[in-house]
Amino acid sequence: MGVSVREFIKNLSVCFAAGCLAGLAYALGLWAMGHYGFTRWVGVDIAPYLSNTYLYQRIVWGGICGLIFLLPWRKSWLARGFFLSLIPAGIMLLLLLPMRGYGPGAVALGMMTPLVIILACALGGIAASGLLRVQGK
After folding, report:
1. Which residues span the membrane (predicted)?
2. What confidence score (pLDDT) does residue 93 get?
3. What CA–CA distance (Å, rounded) separates 135 from 131?
4. Fewer Cβ neighbours under 10 Å: the N or C end of the chain?
5. Where does residue 136 fall: left (phi above 0), alpha (psi -120 to 50 degrees), or beta otherwise?
6. For the packed helices 5-35 and 52-65, what is the interaxial angle rounded to 10 degrees?
């Protein structure tokens, strides 16, 4: 039998909240990689400044991306978090960052930029998937 509207809205809310956590984890992960020199070490010119605006944008977009978790994935929560995080990573690397003039994969920021973006997105995806697992989702 189908899911009730109430259950769907509950799932939508939970996935949005988990996505907000993912956005925070992504933002802090990317900031930490820049702050502690990982991005410089791998030759990538990304070192965001930690500010309210920086966090807010990523938390809200993370919430929107969290709706990906509505997809029916019931295998490992860790794999779910990693593999579903590849969707926003791909959008960033193939659409958003190239639109800002960084080229496909944003390699204008450094050849290892895709690795940095995928790692940061994976941090967020795994955090969100873990939160959903704790909630029984």
Report:
1. 12-34, 54-71, 78-99, 111-132
2. 96
3. 6
4. N
5. left
6. 140
Location of structure tokens 């010119």: 45
CA angle 93, 55, 123 (to 5 degrees): 55
Q: Average pLDDT per run of 10 along the chain, which is 137 residues long?
A: 82 95 97 96 94 96 92 85 94 95 94 97 95 89
Helix axes 5-35, 113-134, angle to 10 degrees: 140
User: What region, left, alpha or beta, does residue 70 occupy, with left being phi > 0 and alpha being psi -120 to 50 degrees?
Assistant: alpha
Print burial letters for 69-107: b (CB count within 10 Å at least 16), e (below 16): beeebeeebeebbbebbeebbeebbeeebbeeebeebbb
